Amino acid sequence: MAEGNELQQFLEDAEATTAFGRRLADALPREGRFAIALGGSLGAGKSTLARALLRGLGVAGPVPSPTYTLIEPYATARGPAYHMDLYRLESVEDATLPGLEDIVEEPALFLVEWPERGGGNPIVFDLELELEHAGRGRRLRGRAWTACAEGVVNELKDGA
To answer: Which domain CATH number covers 31?
Structure first.
């Protein structure tokens, strides 16, 4: 794997996670389809990162965690964004979200928390981010799966 495909960073607190989310928003392509898998244990900062990213893209209103709604749509400066939280899914049948097949190919941003729970999830990810507890902070590991995502990772590395 090329060096540009991976990212590792220590986030010392919620503010650092928020700052990273905003930097990620700035590094994203300005248009087209881009999907991010947000993995990690409960309380690792996935929703904090997603909220900061959406705020960085101009979302001013409430940004609730979609734990119960499963999917929250947003209008952002780069176009539509869909924030999904698959934590409550228990089976592949549950992963068939109504209307997901209609939007999955849209030129939109997709943020998916707990992607491993969506066995029937048709989204192909460009970038995977994993957050894990590390003392009082969080360790973030990322992997780019597309050339576009590799550019995002390289920009994040350059701005670190």
So the answer is: 3.40.50.300
